[in-house]
Amino acid sequence: MKTLFKLLAIAFIFASCEDTEPIIYNGNYEQNDTYISFSRSVYLLPIVQNSTGEVNVVFNASTVTDTDRVYDIEIGFPDNSSAANPATFTVPSTVTILAGSYQGFFTISGVDNDLVDETNKTFTMTITNADETFEYSDSLTATVNIYEVCPLQSDFTGTYYMEVAENYFTDLPGFEAGEVVLAEGSTPYERVFAATAYPGYGGSEEVIIAFACNYLNLGEKVASGVACADDPDDSSLTFAPADLEDRSAYNTNDDSYFEMTVIENSTSNCGGGPQNTIIKFTKVN
């Protein structure tokens, strides 16, 4: 087996590969620099088939002020076929962090309009008027993925026993086997839980399950913070959503057992290539 080690790095307040870390609040803006960021680097906007959907977004600051702070939001699109159709979503033009508060909130609304299907379509949100003299951020942009969903007929929440069906590395599962608690995420079609990646090497990571019509997938990439000695700097073994044709099916009427297929080692670390890995979930209570 390849020699693994846990990556060591300076932890910036907002540093993250896929998702923003919790903010370290440091009080008055006149005494401390202000770090700002979206609460997540990727948001999922599930739209119910022939209907609508929404996702709540949080914008964070590490200090408070005695006046409202208003930030402008600019929408962007990738220059390829994955770009979302502007007719399928609405985003406010600004987000406000009220005086005395560390956070601002807004809602992105989505509508099917016969333009949304199971394929992720993407747009970005960028804060454009941060004050560079005292406001800092690793990234002022977040990505939003739009996709079609069908109403869930079972809860898919509670305690599950989770285990990897087949290890990528001999005697080392991608996630530690054991009980995990699935809870609703930012939308009714997300389930989130904490799991230890590569036990003995990695730490606890948040994992998002995204339910669509008849199929489910990993909601966003999970960087393990674990790498091999000859890997590039700042690179780690990463789990990514499965390709559309490789997703796991599920029974919306039965949440007692389901599987999720993910791409393990999507970054081709440790001298190996990507592999589809199946994670099994059996409901405990």
From TrEMBL:
This is DUF4843 domain-containing protein. The lineage of its organism: Bacteria, Pseudomonadati, Bacteroidota, Flavobacteriia, Flavobacteriales. It comes from Flavobacterium arcticum. It comes from the Bacteria.
